[in-house]
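User: Could you check the structure of this?
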Amino acid sequence: MSPHAAVSVVMPLYNGEKWLTETLKSLAEQEMSDWELLVVDDQSTDNGPGIVDEFSQSVRQDVHLIAIERSGPSVARNHGINLARGRYVAFLDADDLWQRNKLADQVRILEESDSASGAICDYAIMGIDSERITHHRSFAWNQKSLNRWALMESFSPCLNSTLVVRRSVLDTIGGFTAEMTNVEDLDLAFQLARCGQILSTNRVQMTYRMHRNQNHKNRETIIRDYRVFLNRWSDANPDLYRRGLATLYLLESQASWRRGKRFEALLFGSRSLTNAPAQWLRLLNGVRSRRRQGRLNVE
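Assistant: Sure, the predicted structure tokens are below.
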């Protein structure tokens, strides 16, 4: 293959053996074949790297397997970005699936719009340990939707497997915030919002497979990284920061309650209520609704 494939697909890998074969198959079956794959292995202890080696022998595209010290998905993605040679960079997590026309449709709409920074698509959610689609998600990219996502009032666009972005834009913003292992896509989205329009194919072209090993199941790291996110954007968006603190304190209240620290939980809850009363009520109602539906965790 040419050293200048149109799309560089960046995949962080850490113990993804169980899902990786099907994910790579969905990449190999893309209608658009002008891609290269950069898999950044974050010190996996399973056979994930071996599966990537086998895959590299089965396709004509360039497949690069890069080993790094255990650093987390943001550092892994940034490493892949730095080595990417394509005009566009696409992100694909090792446990997600692409529809055959995803890359072709996204590159086409980006080629038709010089002002657009990137493109996303709609996605489906597959239930834990099943092959049943439970939800479809369509994200309207505008500041209101970004703010609702940031305040955990709505779902995300799942950028880590839906986004195709111009390499030049990533060079401008510097990629992902390295210290984040959760909500890193939220932080990236707010950076992208400053760089131009993000288009959408408005078609379901990615499947997000839920399972018990995903990073977003770790509430402690969500709280830690959400605090980093709020601090990074406090000057640019003071109102979001104020309302975001209510979200943060409610998350900390829930975490303390689960640990049996009732007084601490009540203290954080009161801070959430005092900081932004209307936001606190919306969040509390949202938590109750998701609990009734059995889906408290945010995608």
